[in-house]
Backbone:
DNA sequence: ACACTATTTATAAACATTATAAAGTAAGAC
DNA sequence: GTCTTACTTTATAATGTTTATAAATAGTGT
């Protein structure tokens, strides 16, 4: 099932003119299969077997490339190192208070809210709800035209 | 108006047995007055005038103390250094799906969601709504007692 | 297969943050 | 007010993550 995600990711990379190297393939594969949110170092160590000569810089470089293309999100918790998450299709909504238009947007970091809420309140947290309210670009332009 | 917040914070510190040093006073004062979310280094540089001999470690040490007491929240965006935010009374809700109980909790980081949503969607964002759903400790215990 | 350019590697550097030990100081007891 | 004690500050070094650099390597289209 994750094979499809991996293939889509590779196609997506090709489409933006990014070369597909064995290292990139392996890092992506690891991210797709990982159930956790690995750090750069964890990825590096996990791939040491396959690529004994791979440099840490390669991991960082490629994580940045993936992030810029939108395949991967960087999560910064309180601790020392960033964590990296393969982007799934979860999304939130931005709602225009003028015309009611709804626009999707992504924000992977909200998992952390669940963790903190659970920690602070003692709840077993199942899910959350989040919406952003404001004025869309068109309505904003209309309002400013007076 | 922020004088009250500062005094409350100092009282809160005294209450937990933390000594009030001139450096701590100054850091707290800066945080209360700051409209931004300063980094440790910004605080350090801002207080260089008043405390030419203050060590960077002092800033970090005290920010940790304030965080442990709950006066200050540490915000980690994508960039290198953490930002620190004096805790106000904003809060969110955790809602029990069993008994309907509502528990308050804090999470200052959601401002960042507004920024990102605005950036991605082009909205002028005014506010947001967020709730966490799950099972409270009591209902969880009841369910587990079978 | 070739050529061109992106990428990897190895290394060093930059940066934020923490640990350490000695000197200094707040806060309560007398 | 002074003393005493334990907590703080300071200065410095160390740690750990991330980025910069330059030479070597390897994808990709022709």
Residues:
């Amino acid at each position: 099932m994750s094979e499809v995600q991996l293939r889509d990711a590779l196609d997506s990379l090709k489409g933006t003119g990014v070369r597909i190297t064995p290292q990139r393939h392996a890092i992506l594969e690891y991210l797709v299969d990982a159930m956790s949110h690995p750090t750069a170092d964890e990825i590096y160590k996990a791939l040491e077997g396959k690529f004994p000569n791979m440099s840490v810089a390669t991991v960082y470089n490629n994580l940045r490339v993936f992030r810029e293309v939108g395949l991967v999100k960087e999560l910064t918790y309180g601790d020392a190192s960033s964590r990296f998450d393969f982007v799934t299709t979860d999304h939130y909504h931005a709602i225009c208070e003028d015309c009611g238009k709804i626009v999707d947007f992504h924000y992977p970091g909200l998992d952390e809210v669940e963790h903190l809420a659970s920690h602070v309140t003692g709840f077993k947290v199942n899910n959350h709800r989040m919406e952003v309210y404001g004025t869309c670009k068109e309505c904003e332009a209309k309002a400013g035209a007076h």
Chain B has a mean pLDDT of 84. Helices of chain B lie at 2-15, 22-33, 40-46, 56-69, 111-121, 137-144.
